[in-house]
Specification:
The complex is a heterodimer of chains A (407) and B (519). By secondary structure, chain A is an alpha/beta fold. Chain A is built from 15 helices and 14 strands. In chain A, α6 links the parallel β7 and β8. Chain B has 14 helices and 28 strands. Classes of the chains: A alpha/beta (407), B alpha/beta (519).
């Protein structure tokens, strides 16, 4: 690949690396590394740099790295972004993606969705740390938290993070840019090839949009040799139009597993004022909930914006839980524990869940088609709900006596 | 060459220093020789005043000569202005080859201690830590004689064993009278407890009190008594109290550190030792300070009160005292200006001698009454050994402080650290410098999980208590492997054969040495 002009990627922040690359026509490779961990990792950094250059078939370049303790996947991402910028080209995500596939682990039978934490795709330090917090779902963001000039670099960071920095067993999402934005195609390619559990689509307003996205995802899955339909979709509902069409959106495609309310944009579209009490989103919350319940998918509540008001958050999330939501989007790690604990089931709920599962199990053993408990039918959603309850209890550190269904 | 009980290969001697290898935590077969003191009697001056006009004059009159030993406290931490003034005076007087033996060297740059080593004023150093520029220079081979690093509890022992005889002790005090009664608790530049200076006052050949606040006789409270003091010098300024809190004692809003701090409080609250009348030492450092706040929340929620908090005291522990959550604060050091002033304001916040805090070679040290000790570390290895001195590329990043003493003394010692810092793994197979033996570490708390030490005496009960509370644990090997999977395996630090630091344990045995790092 021919480099056309000098380019820079990355910053001088902690856990990041700044890569400056210049064309070096006919003069081979000239690599300078400055690093706070040079004594321990200088050779490893050099190997990564050479590896990325070779993958792009760049044979003539001057490369300067100023490393502030970046992990390998960050160095790789910054190198890839710098090369693409210098060569005015885009990355072949499909080809790059075929080398190694991320295995989506299924430790939990029912993945919990109590908390989904947004992590900016332009912050290596936040991305490095976020895997360790107690959030159930981690949402790498390519949209609002990434400045326009960094969209390309964020794609590399998110792509490599999802593939190489997937440390703990978490449900991983990527929020792509809007359906009508100029970034959507490349975002989808990068995001699908990274193999997250799901994509989170901002500002969905109609079933047709979901179906189009689903079709595009399928095309990429096919090209990349991934299992078709393996990537799930979460639709952000954040306008009055989205609320009006919530029910159709929830049922638009089998990939859709959750709707998430976005209150800030929704209230803006309504000309409403956002308050802590949240009466202005009361209808929207219920509309999303009913859409989700009728489609048998999960409902995720809106962000509580004041990250310093944990008491307010607690009140808000208790209300949310009582309405029936399955989880809540959070924007700061300190919100996680408050939200998770609100979704801790009561002893009574746990006992009921255990009885549901016991009855269902008995039904299976006896080959009964329909199972009843206390005179009510137990269908699939009720069974799933019971499993979720036990999983929530387990996540809250509650020991579950008797039969242990989800183990 | 002998191998000590934590597996370190040590030479038999380094220069004149004969190495006694660390034998393990057992206290059997300890020799208890007679206490040695360098203190000389004097005739009480009938006219009263001991005030001398200048530092130079005091140093000359005290008879400080080439090759002698001088001592200081580090209670002003990075706000200290005394060490620089005294060493400059020694240099001006042409005194050479001093042994510099403060309780710790904190990061003071103006002037730098390195300069006094380079110009020959100092040629030996013994302290609990040598933070900052000096530490890095030492590791790169600045000194011919290795620096002896001792935890707080070991310094009084070494002094009373005659291994560290102090010729002249310089004691900075924020208030003093003309006869030498002195304290750090009052005055415009209060630093709080003078805990480290008690042993210097009673053991040094000559004692010089340095103050910027000469008060009417008698100075009250009397921390350092006039019977031990030879001279009093008034200088313009002894320290900057606002800078006491710099360096080791900072607040954090880093969510990772907060999560670790919360988990520590979870562990404490889950333990059966968390009950009315329990005791704790949380110390300084970002995670520790946050942890103190979470602990206070648990205490309020469960209506549990502590009997005492020990060691270095911070503003938020004073806050707990004011909320009646802790009955007594035992301060061997004050970590910020709020804690510094609190001693004079409250009867149950008291200044304690560092020796009664931590010296196990005594008829009873308070650490042995401690239930929970929270400790930071730079590295921990799969044997739970701690490194609290050196960073991953062999730079000097911390001091021993009372870390090894607290780990040994507390029933349950809890170590806090993130598994990686930048690209540097901190849960490793072997730490670069062993400062605290793994057998004394009960719990390691990280952002990636809680690990219990199966070899610790409280392992079984802790395991039971944590399970009961629903706190998940992981193995230390898992944390190590996880850290390495993120960072890759670092190349080992290359060292020469030259030993630049000797790390003593509280009993005077050598737990490790630091060799000169190849650059």
């Amino acid at each position: 690949m021919q480099l056309k002009h000098p380019a820079v990627a990355g910053t001088l922040e902690s856990c990041d690396v700044q890569v400056t690359i210049h064309p070096n026509d006919g003069m081979g490779l000239d690599i300078h590394i400055e690093s706070i961990v040079k004594a321990q990792f200088g050779d490893a950094i050099l190997e990564t740099v050479r590896d990325v250059l070779a993958a792009f078939e760049v044979f003539d370049a001057s490369v300067y790295l100023v490393d502030k303790g970046a992990l390998d996947w960050v160095i790789r991402s910054r190198m890839q972004a710098a090369i693409c910028r210098a060569a005015d080209c885009s990355f072949d995500w499909v080809r790059g993606g075929q080398k190694k596939k991320r295995e989506i682990s299924v430790q939990q039978r029912v993945p919990l969705k109590r908390t989904s934490l947004y992590v900016s795709g332009s912050s290596p330090v936040n991305m490095t740390q976020a895997v360790f917090y107690n959030e159930d779902c981690m949402v790498y963001d390519l949209e609002d938290s990434v400045p326009i000039s960094e969209k390309d670099a964020a794609r590399f960071l998110v792509y490599n993070a999802v593939r190489d920095h997937h440390i703990l067993d978490k449900y991983v999402l990527i929020r792509i840019n809007g359906i009508y934005s100029e970034f959507i195609y490349e975002d989808l390619e990068a995001a699908v090839c990274a193999c997250p559990n799901a994509l989170r689509i901002p500002k969905v307003e109609s079933a047709d949009e979901v179906q189009r996205i689903s079709g595009m995802v399928a095309d990429i899955e096919r090209k990349a040799g991934l299992e078709i339909g393996s990537i799930e979709l979460w639709c952000n509902i954040e306008s009055y139009l989205g609320i009006i069409h919530a029910s159709e959106i929830a049922k638009a495609d089998p990939r859709v597993v959750a709707l998430a309310l976005g209150a800030e944009d929704f209230t803006a579209s309504m000309k409403a004022r956002r308050t802590k009490q949240g009466l202005e989103i009361f209808y929207a919350r219920n509309a999303v909930l009913m859409a989700c319940r009728s489609a048998g998918i999960d409902a995720i509540d809106a962000v509580f914006s004041d990250i310093n008001d944990l008491d307010g958050l607690h009140e808000d999330v208790i209300f949310t839980r009582n309405l029936g939501f399955d989880g809540k989007t959070v924007v700061h790690p300190r919100q996680i524990d408050v939200v998770n604990s609100a979704f801790t089931p009561s002893k009574k709920e746990i006992e009921y869940a255990q009885r549901v599962l016991a009855a269902a199990e008995e039904g299976k053993q006896l080959n009964k088609g329909a199972v009843t408990l206390d005179g009510s039918m137990i269908d699939k959603p009720i069974e799933l709900r019971a499993l979720t309850t036990l999983e929530q209890a387990r996540a809250a550190g509650i020991k579950i006596g008797g039969m242990n269904h989800a183990d | 060459m002998p191998i000590n009980a934590v597996g370190r290969v040590l030479p038999e001697r380094v220069g004149n220093y004969v190495i006694k290898p660390y034998q393990g935590v057992s206290n059997e077969n300890l020799e208890l020789p007679k206490v040695v003191s360098n203190r000389r009697p004097a005739l009480s001056p009938t006219s009263g005043s001991k005030v001398v006009d200048t530092l130079e004059q005091a140093i000359l009159t005290a008879g400080l000569k080439d090759g002698m030993t001088i001592s200081f406290h580090h209670s002003f931490r990075e706000g200290d202005l005394i060490v620089g003034q005294v060493l400059t005076a020694c240099r001006n007087l042409g005194i050479k080859n001093l042994r510099f033996a403060p309780s710790a060297v904190v990061n003071i740059n103006n002037p730098s201690i390195v300069d006094f080593v380079c110009d020959g004023t100092i040629n030996r150093i013994e302290a609990s830590g040598i933070r900052g520029e000096l530490g890095d220079a030492v590791i790169e081979g600045l000194m011919d004689t290795p620096v002896i690093l001792r935890p707080h509890g070991a310094r009084p022992r070494a002094i009373e064993a005659g291994e560290l005889e102090i010729d002249v002790a310089f004691i900075g005090a924020s208030a003093a009278d003309e006869c030498g009664n002195a304290t750090g608790q009052i005055g415009p530049n209060a630093c709080g407890s003078l805990g480290y200076s008690f042993i210097d006052a009673t053991s040094a050949g000559k004692v010089i009190v340095i103050t910027d606040n000469l008060v009417d006789y008698p100075c009250v409270p009397i921390s350092i008594s006039q019977q031990y003091v030879d001279y009093v010098v008034k200088v313009e300024k002894i320290g900057i109290p606002e800078k006491i809190g710099a360096g080791a004692t900072r607040m954090t809003d880093n969510p990772r550190d907060l999560m670790i701090a919360k988990r520590v409080a979870d562990v404490i609250a889950a333990s059966r030792l968390f009950r009315d009348g329990f005791s704790f030492q949380t110390g300084a450092g970002a995670i520790s300070i946050a942890c103190t706040n979470y602990l206070a929340e648990y205490m309020e929620k469960k209506n549990i009160k502590a009997s005492f908090a020990l060691g270095g005291i911070t503003a938020n522990i004073v806050d707990m005292f004011n909320k009646d959550l802790v009955r007594v604060l035992l301060c061997s050091q004050s970590f910020d200006s709020v804690a510094a002033r609190a001693i004079a304001e409250h009867q149950n916040i008291i200044e304690i001698d560092n020796a009664v805090y931590s010296n196990k070679f005594s008829k009873g040290c308070m650490l042995d009454k401690l239930n929970f000790g929270v400790l930071p570390a730079l590295e921990v290895d799969v044997d739970f050994n701690l490194n609290i001195l050196t960073g991953s590329s062999g730079e000097m990043l911390g001091g021993l402080g009372g870390g090894p003493d607290v780990a040994e003394g507390a029933d349950i010692s809890i170590v806090t650290l993130p598994i990686i810092r930048g690209r540097t793994p901190s849960v490793v197979k072997k730490v670069f410098t062993i400062c605290t033996p793994g057998d004394t570490v009960a719990v390691v708390v990280t952002e990636a999980g809680i690990a219990l030490n199966p070899r610790h005496k409280y392992y079984e009960v802790l395991k039971e208590d944590l399970e009961e509370a629903g706190l998940k644990t992981v193995s230390i090997e898992y944390l190590c492997q996880l850290a390495l999977s993120m960072t890759g395996t670092p190349k080992p630090i290359e060292c020469t054969d030259k030993i630049v630091c000797i790390v003593e344990y509280w009993d005077g045995t050598v737990i490790d040495v630091i060799r000169q790092v190849k650059r």
